[in-house]
Amino acid sequence: MSDTLSRKENEAKGTQKASSQAFGEEPNPSVIHRTSDEIYVGQKYSDSGKPSGKSETKKKESITKDIFILVAITLVAGCLLGAAHGVTKAPIAQAQADAKAKAQREVMENADHFETLYVLDQTGSAGDMTIPASVEEAVASASLATTTITQVDGAFDADGTLTGYVITADNPDGYGGNVTVMCGISPNADGGVTLEGISFLSLSETAGMGMRAREEWFVNQFSGKTLNEGELLLYTKSGASRNNEIDAISGCTITTSAVTDDVNAALITAWKLSPDQKEDGK
Question: Where does the pLDDT of residue 57 fall: very low under 50, low under 70, confident under 90, or very high at 90 and above?
Fold first, then answer.
């Protein structure tokens, strides 16, 4: 009987040893088992099963340090961006002014100088320079509701006489985004106008397709056209045969339409602002 008990005890110890070695541990002969209520006690954990106070303090200090580092990086990055904006702001503004002046010269070659007459008032600060409501209403009533007149500049000769207008129109319905066109328009004595030319301020159409609107053959169609009062431009796919027609860009109806709408909105604006129209109360 005693031999049987001794043999079973030795087998149990052997099983315990094999289990410990399987997990890379040296068997501890003084420990046979632990109850479910006992919790491992190591360097990082106390009898309660929670991190020790020292470990918790280090963790909080590490989080605080990381926060301070992120805040510092954010502040430095913000300062650098602010400095970069301050450095580039003036050159960007000058480049935009130069581009505008160049476009004005392209569409009104004979003008001596230009002065801003009206602007699109988005802040309520333009005062008397706000584009007249009559102009906005006339443009909208001509089925050009999505086209916006953003600025009207006067073209003056050396004596200070107003000889025409440089009108900027913006249409959001281009294939690749907004199409912004500057138009040079001179009022005629008979109530008509002469479209002196156009220049693009914004054009982001597809290369090889809508971007062909910048090509000379297309732009030149808008130069030197004399239009009767109230006469607007039309685009055609079959070849322009009348004075108020232009040839559409093949396969680019959307771009052609956006450009034509901009120009027509500018023509309507010129008629509404011409001296004869003002005197007639129109």
Answer: confident
